[in-house]
UniProtKB/TrEMBL annotation:
UniProt KW keywords: Signal
InterPro entries from the UniProt entry: ABC_Gly_betaine_transp_sub-bd
TM annotation in the entry: none
CDD domains: PBP2_BCP_2
ABC-type glycine betaine transport system substrate-binding domain span: 41-306
Residues annotated as signal peptide: 1-25
PROSITE patterns: PROKAR_LIPOPROTEIN
Pfam families in the record: OpuAC
A cellular-component GO term for this protein: ATP-binding cassette (ABC) transporter complex
GO MF, any single term: transmembrane transporter activity
Protein name: Glycine betaine/proline transport system substrate-binding protein
Amino acid sequence: MSRLLPRLIAAIGLVALAGCASGEAAISPPPGVPKTSRCGTVTVAVNPWSGYAANVAVVSYLLESELGCQVEAVELSETASWAGLNDGSIDVILENWGHDDLKKKYIDRQKVAVELGLTGNKGVLGWYVPPWMAKTYPDITDWKNLNDYADLFKTAKSGAKGQFLAGDPSFVSNDAALIENLKLNYTVVYAGSEDKLIAAFRKAQEDKTPLLGYFYEPQWLLSEVKLVHIPLPNYTPGCDAEAEKVACDYQPYDLDKIGRKAWVDSGNPAATFIKNWQWTNADQNQVARDMTQNGLSADDAAKKWADAHRTVWEKWLP
């Protein structure tokens, strides 16, 4: 673990991470792990948000300390992570948000990937405002009233329209289409990263400045700043089938894990461990907050969680 995770969090603005290629040769296990470990090297995709980094921290810590694996992480976008399952450079995606199109391509048609079950996390994507705005303008939480407040959200970057703040441009989102199809007088402006999006919402609450933007759960910030979700027209299956015509809210997700089929079929104990791994939004938020706000290294945050939850993770072991 110490070889990997001090470099893990480049995507959330901490330190740079060097990606490594996948390998399956046996390695010398750490002290206390049987020398018969068949785990070898596990190559994990790292997507650019803090909750994902928390997943990698805990899973990597336990794979290395309990199963004698060597974990290598590769920083990739969501779409590129799936492509890595196809070319063999990635063994596992630890947090997948839907992507039915990619499942059809890589699981159903190409048969190079398999589902590894749910993470236990409940995923919510959507539009949010800081709590002070919902208190001051209670009807702003009805999307039909957003045009009445567009002038409040104008910025130098949004021009004559209200600003809608999005995060990392690589995040899969429907916001531009939603604004167009719901006939809202807004334009999408990108913060550039999860860190910058978090900073913008914190500042908006502290300074009582207007902000409307994209956000999601699980996310540690919500335990500190109770952002208020603005429901859009109800999601129904298929309402987002054509991206340019989307006029409904985001689909709620039961987040899942995806593995490279050849790696899973090899009987690698790490694949069994990851199949068994499930935790809660609160678990993820605790580790992510320790890593991003409380000054703990990824190793230390993972160890802190593992020491307090032995009866949970022991059930994940093969």
